Amino acid sequence: xxxxxxxxxxxxxxxxxxxxxxxxxxxxxxxxxxxxxxxxxxxxxxxxxxxxxxxxxxxxxxxxxxxxxxxxxxxxxxxxxxxxxxxxxxxxxxxxxxxxxxxxxxxxxxxxxxxxxxxxxxxx
Length: 124
Hints:
mainly alpha, 70% helix
């Protein structure tokens, strides 16, 4: 092998080594930046969804509390609402069903089915 070929091989191998190291370094930097960017976007989306769910839960709680207060007020005025009146109140307040329990925790009135068929977790 001639001296010129040895110099060419040395320069070529050195240049290729530098190019490969630079390419690997840039690839690592770009990969890390993409991962950081993806993580930041995912965290922002997760935070937004969590906030939306918390707001929906608060709004649902307020709706349910208001519906319970309306039913309580109507019950205290009329002393015994009929099932149809309960259904009307449910429609008026925006809830799907109203269940009433007595002081012992036993269901005694429901807007959707016979209270004896409802599994009762309050009274075991």
